[in-house]
């Protein structure tokens, strides 16, 4: 959807991918997951603990990225926007989009999307490596 929208040539495809197609995919995903997961399985204490740990991890990842960027700005001659640090979580591409939107609300001349995608993709790679290490240790 982002690629279609940014190229500016495929307006109909862009609107379809952003609206109808994503809704259809979401419905199919919800139905397939809902058909296999019962309430007693999903609402177990273990599942709720995993969800809580995920919320805490995303919060620390986002706050840590912003704080580290602010710390780096103390020593850099050419400052970087701390919002780029918030995109380091592995929620692709949503974290980068949020950084772009918040940055443009503060200053309409900010174009952070491509800069935010770098740490965004690095967050995905880091998550995959961490998952591999955890699986090899505890798996």
Low-confidence stretches: none
Summed over residues and divided by their number, the pLDDT gives a mean of: 85
Total E-strand runs:
0
**Tally of individual domains:** 2
How much of the sequence is in beta strands? under 5%
Order of helices and strands: HHHHHHH
Computed Rg: 19 Å
Helical percentage: over 70%
Overall geometric form: flat
Count of discrete alpha- or pi-helical segments spanning 4 or more residues: 7
- Give the CA-CA distance, first to last residue: 36 Å
Major sheet summary line: none
* Class from secondary-structure proportions: mainly alpha
Q: What are its keywords?
A:
139 residues; 2 domains; mainly alpha; flat
Please characterize this protein's 3D structure:
By secondary structure, this protein is an all-alpha fold. It has two domains: 1-36; 44-138, no CATH class. It is 78% helix and 0% strand. It is built from seven helices and no strands. It has helices at 2-7, 11-36, 39-42, 45-73, 83-86, 94-106, 113-138. Helix 6 (94-106) runs antiparallel to helix 7 (113-138). The radius of gyration is 19 Å and the shape is flat. The protein starts with a helix and ends with a helix.
